[in-house]
Amino acid sequence: MSEMMTNFERLRDTYLGEIHALIDRVVEDEAPEGSSLVEMCRYHMKTGGKRLRALLPLAVAEAFGAEPTKLVPLGAACEMLHNATLVHDDLQDRDQIRRGEETVWVRFGEPRAINLGDAMLYWTLLLAGRLECPADKRQRISSRILRETLRVVDGQEREFLLKDVTSPSVDDYFRMVEGKTSGLFALPLGAAADFCDAPEDVIDELEIAAGHLGVLFQIQDDVLDLYADKGREHRGTDICEGKISALVVHFLTHAPEDEAAWLRDVLDRPRDEVSHDDIDRVIDAFREHGSLDFALNEIDRRRRLACDTKFFADYPAIEGLLRGMAEVFLKPIQHVIAAEQQA
């Protein structure tokens, strides 16, 4: 295990219980008396996850020499926001299982799932309000949360619009991901650096690096869905949902027209009409036409853009954090990368 992964495990062992306790307390204290939203939130949160976004602010605090426990409310807020998007995403994508449990909309119904996702957005701000800092700093952090939330929602909207584009461009895909995914990494890094009184240019560069790491994370997730185990019902769930991934965008713009037309037909079908044979053919076609290579090369490019900048030479702990994030993000597909390099 690398130094960075060991550090994340230490932060998880030391502070995750405190983060969970704060989430439970704020959800209970701030909900109207007898609200069923509390039960639904507890149900969703117990499905687990890596809690990476919860720990990132604490890792930033350590990198700047601050006490991590002071960033627990921000870590809790980032985790709540991330999970709010998951509740809505599961409904929009019609995903029925998350980490072995029924998703909220399956368990409680669609209208109540929408209500819970909405409520979790407000709990996010209430959690951030528990930060012990001057009021103007707390206001800046709350404003960051609101802006990044809008970016995430806009990215999700762009994803839906891309489904109606016959030949979406790589730039369209990146613009969507930089909202939908990168915002949820820019927030914990940028807001934590702000809390620690980092210089403005450092905060800006951190958010730029987070943007690249967000794209890296999303592309590895695209690859994971087809070439590894994503922990969902079966491989190729994103294809069944008609999602526009990095591999799909490359294939539609580089494969012969008849092959591109075939993929568009698969993406347009109802998810229960996409067969395992269709998924197997997609997997092979992405390899044959260089789409998997494109995705892996872009992952490596984004890693270098985020981690190899000279800007953080005077901040070795921050540079180490960024490299560690890339390592953690890529661990689930490391065997895919190794296999393709040997092919």
What features would you describe in this structure?
The chain is mostly helical and 343 residues long. It has 2 domains: 1-132, Farnesyl Diphosphate Synthase; 135-343, Orthogonal Bundle (Farnesyl Diphosphate Synthase), CATH 1.10.600.10. It has 17 helices and 2 strands. The protein has helices at residues 3-30, 36-45, 52-63, 72-93, 104-108, 110-128, 135-162, 170-180, 183-195, 200-227, 237-240, 246-254, 257-268, 276-288, 291-307, 316-330, 334-342; strands at residues 97-98, 101-102. It has a two-stranded antiparallel sheet with strand order 1-2. Strand 1 and strand 2 form a beta hairpin. Helix 1 (3-30) crosses helix 3 (52-63). The chain starts with a helix and ends with a helix. The model has no long low-confidence stretch (mean pLDDT 94).
Instruction: Classify the beta-strand content into a percent band.
Output: under 5%
Radius of gyration using CA atoms only: 20 Å
Indicate the percent of residues in helices.
over 70%
Please tally the helical runs, counting DSSP H or I stretches of 4 or more residues.
17
CATH fold group of the largest domain: Farnesyl Diphosphate Synthase
The total number of structural domains is 2
Anisotropy-based shape: globular
Pfam family, one: polyprenyl_synt
Keywords: Magnesium, Metal-binding, Transferase
Protein name: Polyprenyl synthetase family protein
GO biological process, one term: isoprenoid biosynthetic process
